[in-house]
Amino acid sequence: MVAKTWDKFSDERIALLHPKIREDAATLINTVEEKTGIKLRVTQGFRSFAEQDALYEQGRTKKGKIVTNAKGGESYHNYGLALDVCEIRGREAIWECDWKKIAPIAKGLGWEWGGDWKSFPDRPHFQKAFGKSEKQLLKLYEALGRGAKFVDVG
Ligand SMILES: [Zn+2]
């Protein structure tokens, strides 16, 4: 059983992540709340290849702002190994969070923070790569039977 967070929407999304990081995701939300009082919500977790492809088209062949440089298979979200967060304050979602407080806690728990990326900083994004590149994950994924969903990250 994965620990619960303060937020049922986060719990639902955490339950769809790679089994290896579900507990870590709940720990992240709960530790940030304990240490800072900031209530984070998981807004995105697992994303299928098709959903990723659709997101990639946003700002390219579809209207809107470009939000990703990753096509299907090129994002850790596609393997259930990444999550995005916002802060919930009252009934309001806050997208520019206090990352100076949140990021060090996450990194201390072994998460890689998208805000550290030089080319395309993605501050709401946290991932656990288990030392695997997206290319390596894609190879593992392609070796899976079509029924299997999550790659073995060791
Ligand atoms: Zn993300």
Automatic annotation (TrEMBL):
Domain Peptidase M15C: 69-127
CDD domains xrefs: L-Ala-D-Glu_peptidase_like
Pfam families: Peptidase_M15_4 (PF13539)
InterPro entries with a match to the protein in the record: DD-CPase-like, Peptidase_M15C, Zn_M74/Hedgehog-like
Protein known as: M15 family metallopeptidase
Source organism of this protein record: Dongia rigui
